[in-house]
Design a protein that fits this description.
The structure is a homodimer. The N and C termini of chain A lie far apart (70 Å). Chain A is built from 10 helices and no strands. By secondary structure, chain A is mostly helical. The longest helix of chain A has 22 residues. The structure holds a DNA duplex.
Chain lengths: 174, 174
Amino acid sequence: MPTPDRTSLIEIVEAGRDLIESGGASRLTMQAVAERVGVRPPSLYKRVRDRDELLALVAQATVDDLGRRLAASDGSLAGLARTYRSFARERPEGFRLMFTVEGAAESLQQVSEPVLLLGREMAGEDVALEAARLIVAWATGFIDMELAGSFRLGGDVDRAFEFGLERLDLALRG
Amino acid sequence: MPTPDRTSLIEIVEAGRDLIESGGASRLTMQAVAERVGVRPPSLYKRVRDRDELLALVAQATVDDLGRRLAASDGSLAGLARTYRSFARERPEGFRLMFTVEGAAESLQQVSEPVLLLGREMAGEDVALEAARLIVAWATGFIDMELAGSFRLGGDVDRAFEFGLERLDLALRG
DNA sequence: ACCTGAACACCGTTCAAGT
DNA sequence: ACCTGAACACCGTTCAAGT
């Protein structure tokens, strides 16, 4: 005698995404997720193996979102970097999770294509990959530090971002 | 009737540092720390307010270590960056904690001085801060991604690091 | 086939009682 | 003044029993 489904994997992942943005990954408890989707905690284990897998799914969904955004940008250095930064500001906790969760690294690959294209265009075939890594490392580090509140010496953080864009443009076309 | 101290804050923080390196911050439980220092969990609360404070102290100790290392380097772009990277490889979990833990951001300030000096030397007074932020953002992002296993497109990661150093040198002296 | 209550192990934290 | 056992709240997870 089957029971009608009272929730779905999509709904569970969406609840997880909301929860982490409300105060970090520690807010994502199986109990809180269950309550949000209207089910008891044990029922979640019909859809996800455990909490770690749910965190990975949340990270994956965030990567997918980011990939769509980047693909829709104009593909320029400034365009990609600003898109990346504004995405991180929208979902700061999701952004962090992408680099934290075990197993999210693979899926980040799908995001790297537009940056790799840009690296080739700017610095040439030979060092396309190295150029892409310079760009991504800078942008990721900048945003991570910005979100963590690590820029403490005053100054204009937006100006520092634009400065980075200008100089990287110089450095890669050199 | 006083009881002789059976542990100390220093010993507790050191135990915490060991524990996180053995498998991430989740390994740092009050029970595991207590066991390591030879005391029962409730006793820890005589020295630290709660687990979060202990995590902050562990991050702080890591920042102090890093500050000493950077101060002992030659102060060049390559010297600072390589010191930073090798420190992160020695204590990957401590490195991550520096940017994760609430309240570790303030203490990172003490580390920024040598980079700020370098930024001024390379790019001039006017943009010293912006230059320092470009350097730190790149190095931090690169190392973070390296530790997280985010470089998945093959290629030589060491080569990408050296490429970044060369091009940043170009970009900042430009 | 999904859902639930009950149960278990584990963790952070408090507190009264010991020395 | 520090230490402890006992206790509580909370969490992840399992499982037998329900529909």
